[in-house]
Structure formats: structure tokens, C-alpha cells
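retry 2 of 3: previous attempt timed out while embedding arginine. Reduced batch size to 1 and resubmitted. Inputs unchanged:
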Amino acid sequence: MTDLKSRLTTVVSDAFAQAGLPAELGRVTASDRPDLADFQCNGALAAAKAAKANPRALAEEIVAILKPDPMFAAVELAGPGFINLVLSDATLSLRANAIAEDPRLGAGLEPAPRRVVVDYGGPNVAKPMHVGHLRASIIGESLKRLFRFRGDEVWGDAHFGDWGFQMGLLIVAVGDEQPDLDFLADGDGPFPSESPVSLADLERLYPLAAARAKTDLEYRDRARKATAELQGGRPGYRALWRCFVEVSRTALEREFSALDIEFDLWNGESDADPLIAGMVAELEAKGLLELDQGARIVRVAKDGDKRELPPLLVVSSEGSAMYGTTDLATIVDRRNRFDPELILYVVDQRQADHFEQVFRAARLAGYAAEDGLEHIGFGTMNGPDGKPFKTREGGVLKLHDLIEMAKDKARERLKDAGLGAELTEQDFEDTAHKVAVAALKFADLGNFRGTSYVFDLDRFMSFEGKTGPYLLYQAVRIKSLLRKADVEGHAAGEVVVVEPAERDLTLALDAYEAALAEAYARRAPNLIAEHAYRLAQTFSKFYAACPILVAADAKSRASRLRLAKVTLDQLDSALRLLGIETPERM
Ligand code: ARG
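retry 2 succeeded.
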């Protein structure tokens, strides 16, 4: 199914060719002046420049070719040589009906589906999640859904941080606190069937241990040694480590699911461990490894780099795998298991250098194609002080607390707005939850991901303006209208576009495909958010201008009902791609 813009580009390109001009100049865009035209083509200006001809004369020729085509209500020359296109009501009616009948609601597919891994979320064992993880989760989930919707085969992987130095730190800290854990000391079983530590223990111990290792070098060395021994396979350490992973993962999964974030794979850094020895041997054989003060590194700096990129540390002097090591081995693992054409790493922009190191090493080793690895960086969510958001106590925020905070605010706002009064308590809670999630996600996805933004729950939660709650409210309003139509026995029917507001709504619906294609190409969910907002606003105007249930005649009522229904469906579809669900009622 082709959107109007692409179809018009074909028609106008043919006209250019017919006039003996380069067809590729026939590109059509949405009109800069929606009051004058629906679409425009500026190609005559470029054509005239190349041919040293008069642009208005060339445009006039194209206009003459296009004019007889019944798809247009008007084709006009404007300004220095622009061609303005106004579609006929019949063309728009056809398109509106086609979108309404299309299960994909007017959205297309990418020409060549690919296998794609989206690496996002990136929570760590025991370390509390911070805003970087929140953003990674929200953006990554949306990209995963978008890529899948465009036809790719996609695996979303949490890439759980379960293998680094923090594991050694925790082993030492737990061992010091619980000296009676015999299996830790002697390395023999029996191993505990239940975890000797809770998540609360880990969250309490980790910051203490991390802080102590900064100043107490003996402590730090014990933790480093424990990390190396864990990785080396010491059974007691592995047993305790499995407990750490287990308790953390259970808690994290609950938090992610509250945000409607679902990973297909919960692989961890540790899953790449069995591949590391072979990978190191291979890097060695390829002559890529260098010995540097007892450590083994891959040099990745290139001539012409603006800044010197440090080498990738593959094996530390204690013999342990580092963050970059597991990332490199994970590429090998993913290649073996999924053979992806593309891996997207949705991770804080501050890790850009890390990924550049890993990607360069992977290309040198022949593990990935030049364009097979992409870091999808993003800015931070900041507090009012302009620094990455922290809780009032100054600690990093916990996802759970954030969601609770947002839900409290949602309940309050719903009540203030006089909403939800007729809902059962459970429906009210469900709506509050959806409003909270929509507010957080839309605030994040409403800006281009590279932009940092300020955490402002009051603004995020407003029912007015470019917010999640506004969009949910619009969707719910349509749902309730459709329910009412149902009760009154009115069915939707063929769309017949007549009024300007109906034309505008059809054009807004038609723009879905272009928005998604662009969002996909630029890995930019904000373009989906933009589309959803525009669609909701256009619908609002349509609703104000065109009576639906009390339309003058049955035919236009049926037509408007169908427009309302397809708007709701497309809004729902766009919001789902952002990871946002709409409630039934408010
Ligand atoms: N666990 C990491 C962190 O907290 C993020 C992981 C990102 N993904 C990756 N493949 N390195 O910073």
C-alpha cells in the first residue's frame, strides 16, 4: 500500500520525464502552506538551474501535463516555480477507505527484512538502575517494536550486567559479612539451595564495597582476585554468584514488566564467557593482541582520529575479562546464534567511546560488517539542577520508586480533572498505571533521543499539550464515542471526504507511513510520537468541526464514524510502538 506522497512522487516524476527533465526531480513533499495546497514539488527550480532555463516556464510545462489527471482538484504554479498540488475529494476518500481497510493502517514494510538484535536496558546485578537504564529501556523497547513492525526479525536482549568487577566486590563483601558460608572458603559443596543474601542485602553491600575499594587497595585486590576466580570457575563463587543473579533478575523483571518492557532474551555478560578463551586465541592468531603491562589489548586508534581512542582491554593483568571483552565475545555469540545483519546498542551517549572501541575491534577481527554495529546513544534525564536525575536524598533513582511516584501523581491528576469517578477501583488503578507509564514514556520519546531533558512530573502528567496523558485522553474519548454509536445502533460505513477537516484528517492518517519510515531510518521514535500528537490534534479539530453522532445524514455519520475508528486504531498502533497502552475508560 502506497502513501499519497510516494504515489504523487511517481506521478510527478513521470511528468518530469515526459517533459524531458530528470525524473528524480519530481520528488513531492507535504506542502509548506497547507492553506494553499496538500503537497508540493520544487523540482522545476533545480531543473531550470541545470538547464539554464526559466523555472516558471518549466514548471508551467509540468503543470500542463499534470492538470488533466482526475486525482487532482488543482495543480498550480506558485512563486518562482513551485508546483502546488491539491488532491480531489475522491482521491482522499479512496485513500481514507484504503487505510481503514488495511490491517497495517497505512503503514508499509521495509523492502528487505533483516535479522536485528536490539541490546537495551542493560541493568546490572545488585547495582540499582539509574536514569540511563530507564532511558535505554524506553527507547530500546520502542525501537524493537518499530523494527519488528517494519518486518525485521528482532531479538531484544537485556544484556544483563552479571560478570564484571562488581561480582568480585559482592563476593568479598558477602564473605566478610557471613564468615560461616563454608562453601565459599573451601569451594566444595553442598551449595545453598536458597540464596544466603536478599536483594536488599546486595543493594546495601554494593555501594559500601564499591566505595571501600576506591581507597582500600588490599580490599580492591581481594575483589579483583575474586572476580578472576569466579570467572575461572571456582565452584563456591559460582554458586554464590548464581544466587546474586537470581535475586536481582527476579526483582528487575518485575520492574520492567510494570513498564511494559519485555526482553526476548535475558542474556548476561556471563553468557559470553564460554566463548572468551577461543576468542582470545583467535585474536592472538590474527595478530591483533598486544601485551601491555601484563594486560592484553587490541589497539583500535586510527590515523585521522580527532581524539586518541584508547586500546580495548581484552584480558586484565589478573587474567579477567573486562566490560569490552564480554561485549566482543557477545558479538561472536550473537553471530553464532542469530547471524544478525545489525546489532543496535541502545546505551547512554557517555559510553560512546566504549562502543567505538568494541566495534573497531570486532571489525578488525572480522566479527561484524562495517555497518553491522550501531551505538544508539542518548542524552540524560536531568534533575532541576541540570545534572542526571537523582532522588531527593541524592541517591540514584529506583525504577520502582519512579513508577510509584508517577502513579501517585496520575491518581491525583485524574481526580483533579474529574476523571475516573465512574470506574471501579481496579479499573481506576489500571487507568492510573497506564497514565503514569504513558507520561514517563512520552516525555522521554517526545524529544530526539540525543537531547537531554528535565524530569518534571507535573508537566509530563498534564492532560494538555504534548504529553502521554493528553494522547490517552484523546484515544479514550474516541473509544467512548464509538461505544455510544454502538449503543445507538450506528454503524461505520464508506468514507466520503467533503469537509476541510475531513481532508486534513485523511492527510494526517496518510502521513503515518512516512513518519514510520523516517523513524526507522533515523532510529528516532520521537517521529512516531510527533505523528501521534499531530493525529490527535487533527482529530480534535475534526471532531469540533464535523458532528458525528448528530451528523446531518446517515451517510456522513457512517463516514465520520469510520474516520473516528481508523484514527483510534492508528493512534493505538503508534502508541503501541512507543510502548504505551491506552485504557478503555478514564
Ligand atoms: N550494564 C551496562 C551499564 O550499566 C550497560 C550494558 C549496555 N550494553 C552493552 N552491550 N554493553 O552501563
